[in-house]
Structures are given as C-alpha cells and as structure tokens.
Specification:
11 strands, 336 residues, alpha/beta, binds 3-(1H-indol-3-yl)-2-oxopropanoic acid
C-alpha cells in the first residue's frame, strides 16, 4: 500500500519534471495598458491556453507596449520579435482592405455582435491581408461615441473641434465637420492633457480604463463605427507547435471573440456609471433630424469602401451584404 503511494508520487514527480523541461514558451505583445480590454482579453486567452494544454504551454504576456507598440505590431510579429501580437487594423489605413469593412458606420450597437461578425467574415474570406501571419482570434470594441471636454449637443458644436480617432473614424469626423487627429489609443491621454485634442471618438469604456472621464466628462451618443482587432501569430512559431496545441488555439478563436465582445459591452456600462458618479458626466443625444443628417453625410462611405476593396481584388458587394446579414442574425441570436 505505502509502496504504491510512494511509486505514484515518484511517477508524478518524474512526469512533471519531464513536462517542465518541454514547456513551450510563447510571447504575446500588446500595445495598451494591462487594465484595458485588449490586455484583459489577452490574460483570459493565456489562462485558457495554459489550462487546456495542461501546462505544455506557457504564455508570457507583455502589455503596455513593453515588447511591441501600436505602430510596429504587425511587422514585429511577422519578423518574430514577438510570437503573438494584438493588432488594431485602423492604425494602418489601406493595409487591411477586407476587415476594415467593420469600420463602416452601419449601426452596430454591440461589441459581441460585431466581434462574431468580424470572425465569421474572416473565416469565410480568409483575406490575403493576413497571409503572412496565423490569425488566432479577432474582436471588436463597442461602437464609437464622442467624448469631449466641452458639451457637444448639436452638429454645430462639433464644427472645427479637434478630435482623436484613427482609420475610418477619422474620415467620419472629417465628413461631420470636425478636425480629426489620428493616433493610436495609448498616445491619447497625453494629447488630451496637453489640449492638442478636445476629445476622442471611441468606445466609452475608456472613460474608466484610461480615466478619460476626468478630461472628457461630456459624451454624445452616435454609435458610429467599431475598431476591429486581430490577434496574430508568427507563422514559423505556429508551424513549430504540436498539433494538439494548435487545436486548442483553433478551438478558442470564436469563443475568444465572443468572450471579449461580451466583456466589452458590460464594461461600457460600468464606465458610464463610473463617469456619472465621479465626474458628473453627461451623455447627450441629438435630435432625430440631426441623426438623419449624419446618416446622409456618411452615406458615401460604403461606396468608398467598396471601390477600394474591389481595386484590391475583393468581392466587395458580397462581403458587405454578408456583414449586414450576419449582423442581423447575431442581433437576434444574442437578443441585442
Ligand atoms: C482601444 C484601444 C486600446 C485600448 C482600449 C481601447 N478601447 C477602444 C479602443 C479602440 C480605439 O479607439 C483604438 O484606437 O484602437
């Protein structure tokens, strides 16, 4: 009896020692701080992978641009400076012609829905823009709204106002009469503090996570575009992984998209409560006529995207109509 227990104990020691020697280390770079949603989803993915590979894999996470920053994420992962990286497609306009279809202001109201639509479109079309990397998951933030230093209660209030955004969001601001200032999210706190910009256009969880509520206590509800993200892996690293590890990661792709979308949607609500309680934040809505005017001013964006996508050899009409169909499908399925 005792012998048997001792033997089992020894076996565990030996096998865990062996497993320890074979641990596969994977570095994962992220550009924004640890408490922001792209880094929160990174930790969740890390935990899931480590658990489901039963210790075969160790993921070392680098939030806050400590390994790769927003501007060199794509190149850095292709070159192998990090094994995995989280990428915001809107920081490199023109580089991701297919997935930027999600940046069109088509009325998404939920990050969970947008994330699933993005993932499905990616899986269906396997666009060439990602052929140099392995895509592990994709997700989206919640729709963009205006967060400003001074109240914006009408389109008139927005004229000439310098607002931080990036990608198609910057083009949207231009069409609405504001002055877009494009920069990655981590550069925004300083731009706001120095008064270089009077506000930003993004999802409102940043009121809490970057404490922007202190600088931009006024919000205007617009529900414009979303910012699409991709988690990408260096191809050689991917090819080097055992099949069972690859399978765990493949199985996580869609699940992670939904998890992140849901986390984001809940977090926006939390951030609005935080801003209202601590900074007397106010969320304005425009009149129905003004929302109609906005739709009119932005109507040309869909054709702009289609033209560009077609030039790049993409079936633009099909991609766009798939997006709208999937959006409706998931809005019903998730009850949003
Ligand atoms: C974003 C990016 C990094 C951290 C938190 C964030 N919340 C919303 C976004 C999207 C965005 O505006 C951007 O610049 O990618």
């Amino acid at each position: 009896m005792y012998k048997k227990i001792l033997l089992t104990f020894l076996l565990i020691l030996v096998s865990s020692g062996l497993a320890g020697a074979e641990v596969i280390r994977i570095s994962y770079a992220n550009f924004p701080p640890a408490n922001t949603f792209p880094s929160v989803q990174m930790e969740r993915w890390k935990e899931a992978v480590e658990e489901r590979t039963q210790g075969m894999v160790k993921v070392e996470t680098y939030p806050g641009g400590s390994l790769l920053g927003a501007r060199n994420m794509f190149r850095g992962v292709i070159q192998g400076q990090a094994d995995i990286g989280n990428l915001s497609m809107s920081y490199q306009p023109g580089v991701f012609p297919m997935t930027t279809v999600l940046e069109l202001p088509v009325g998404f109201t939920s990050a969970a829905v947008a994330s699933l639509v993005l993932w499905d479109l990616y899986e269906k079309y396997q666009p060439a823009e990602f052929e140099q990397v392995k895509v592990l998951t994709m997700f989206a933030n919640a729709p963009s709204n205006l967060m400003t230093r001074q109240p914006v209660q009408s389109l008139e209030d927005l004229q000439g106002l310098e607002i931080r955004a990036s990608g198609t969001a910057s083009r949207i601001l231009e069409l609405l009469g504001a002055v877009p200032v494009s920069m990655p999210m981590p550069e925004t706190p300083e731009a706001l503090q120095r008064g270089m910009v009077k506000g930003l256009l993004s999802s409102m969880e940043v009121l809490l996570d970057f404490n922007f509520a202190a600088y931009t206590p006024y919000q205007t509800l617009l529900d414009l575009q979303i910012y699409p993200f991709a988690v990408i892996m260096n191809k050689r690293k991917w090819d080097s992984l055992p099949e069972e590890v690859q399978q765990v990661m493949e199985d996580l792709g869609r699940e992670q998209a939904l998890w992140t979308g849901r986390y984001m949607d809940a977090h926006v609500k939390k951030a609005l409560d935080y801003a209202a309680e601590n900074y007397d934040a106010q969320l304005f809505e425009l009149t129905a006529e003004e929302y109609d005017i906005i739709d009119e001013k932005l109507a040309g964006l869909v054709d702009e995207w289609k033209l560009e996508a077609e030039k790049r050899g993409l079936p633009a009409e099909e991609i766009f109509s798939d997006m709208m169909r999937l959006k409706e499908y998931y809005e019903n399925e998730l009850g949003i």
